[in-house]
Amino acid sequence: MLITCPYCGPRDVIEFTYQGDGNRQRPQPASQNLDAWNAYVYDRLNPAGDHNEIWQHSGGCRAHLRVVRNTLTHEISSTAFARGDHNSVARHRAEDKP
Amino acid sequence: MVERQSPLEPVLHPGSHGDFEHGVEIILSETRPGSILQLAAWPGEEKTLMAGIHTITGLTLPDGAGGGVTNGARSVFGFAPGKFTVVDEAEGLATAFADVVTPAIGTVTDLSHGRTAIRIAGPKAEWVLAKFFAIDFALPAFPIGAGRSTMHHDVFAQIQRTAADQFDIYVFRSFARSFWKALCHASEEVGYDVQ
Predict the structure, then answer these.
(1) Which residues of A touch B134 (CB under 8 A)?
(2) Does A61 contact B43 at a Cβ distance shorter than 8 Å?
(3) Among A4, A49, B8, B166, which residue's CB has the most CB atoms within a 10 Å radius?
(4) Predicted complex ipTM exceeds 0.95
(5) pTM of the model
């Protein structure tokens, strides 16, 4: 399986570390909303098809990546830096639900 | 200054080795640069950091992922977004950068004692490195000056091409001796010189 890192180009999967489901939304650290924490820790879509994932290019540029991988074929249909998400979208979402 | 000891000392045997009767096609050496720095820019400060690198080293970094340049004594290349490795034959580069790369721009990490620099040169250099790393070493894909970060099993390596048939490899000091031995084994079948 090859993952095309936006910085390094196509690299073997052995250079990457899986960082988990990319659909999860982490509640604010101080949140006492147990349903939100339960969903963050346990709820997974487990799709047979395209899946949003977070990977780290740990054996290369060490950037965190947002990857769409097909769970049936292992085809990688898109890769992008996760940094933008983290700084804008994800933080926004967390602020929306205290 | 404290005299630096090389981790390769017990295994670095100058001379010709392997199948050298048919000619030597690989030259291995340790370059022992005085300074090896890692510079990182905060998001949005990349250009300012690149300008700072030019101010201190006189080297102009090309734009683009993995871009780099070398003038023999000094080398610089990008190895990650907004991060650069800067190498100088002389010591004291970290002190020079401390005034230019302010906390508002990014960070300076002195790795001079933490990395070992190994140079592999010769007509078979690409061929030997291709045994180790699953990246494209052909000149059009990996131009002179460019840098790549990759790994050989658990040995993280930063590689800069410093000439058409010459690569400088920066590995963790603690892995250097084992990696050097592996390089020697891989070079045996084409004959290699240690300098």
Answers:
(1) 11-12, 14
(2) no
(3) B8
(4) no
(5) 0.90
